């Protein structure tokens, strides 16, 4: 029988952890966006958010199905990440419609970038799934349009939303670091092994530069100062 990466117990644990955290992230994204739809100022906005929430749930189902195919209970795979992800969302609960949009675009965007970076170290099938799940689902255009229109109407909103965006990036980075530190398997995935190169300090520095640049680009797209 042909050997695969999943024959290595350490690699299998890391891949399952990655799929587990992503699955719970998509499940909570569905829940949050559906809840945010209640704050939508128009029926059109409500419908747009409902469509985005449906997309997020579809992503959750893809990740869940991949775990099942690996012989893993998806609920067990997600469980270790419930507390840290729920804590992040509790600390970054938006106070209004615009903050909820910025959070979905900026906060989630940074977290997604981080997990895309980790996906560079997994097998081709898992990597393809991660990249598919995090492909733009139309959220960016919707959020940028609504936030820019609101700032054009009331320029004072720009300062408040920029502060909110900076807070989100700090919380998202802290959350990612906590998860990587708490889960030895994910830390080992980034560190690599004898036959699978990982990240050295210089590469880690470049990764965080890429994350910061992507965050700045998102803030600029919204018309906000990073």
TrEMBL record:
InterPro entries: Ferritin-like (IPR012347), Ferritin-like_SF (IPR009078), Ferritin_actino (IPR059125). Signal peptide: none annotated. Pfam families: MiaE_2. Residues 10-192 form the Ferritin-like domain. This is Hydroxylase.
């Amino acid at each position: 029988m042909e050997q695969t990466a999943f024959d290595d117990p350490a690699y299998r644990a890391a891949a399952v952890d990655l799929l587990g955290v992503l699955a719970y992230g998509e499940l909570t994204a569905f829940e949050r966006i559906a809840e945010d739809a209640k704050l939508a100022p128009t029926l059109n906005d409500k419908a747009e958010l409902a469509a985005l929430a449906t997309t997020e749930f579809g992503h959750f189902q893809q990740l869940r199905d991949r775990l099942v195919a690996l012989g893993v209970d998806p609920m067990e795979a997600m469980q270790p990440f419930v507390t840290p992800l729920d804590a992040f969302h509790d600390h970054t609960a938006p106070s209004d419609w615009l903050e909820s949009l910025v959070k979905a675009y900026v906060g989630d965007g940074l977290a997604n970038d981080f997990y895309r970076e980790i996906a560079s170290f997994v097998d081709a099938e898992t990597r393809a799934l991660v990249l598919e799940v995090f492909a733009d689902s139309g959220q960016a255009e919707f959020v940028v349009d609504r936030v820019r229109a609101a700032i054009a109407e009331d320029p004072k909103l720009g300062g408040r939303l920029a502060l909110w965006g900076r807070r989100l990036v700090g919380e998202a980075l802290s959350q990612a670091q906590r998860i990587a530190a708490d889960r030895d398997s994910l830390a080992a995935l980034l560190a690599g092994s004898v036959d699978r190169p990982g990240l050295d300090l210089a590469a880690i520095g470049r990764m965080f530069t890429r994350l910061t640049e992507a965050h700045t680009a998102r803030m600029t797209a919204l018309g906000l100062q990073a």
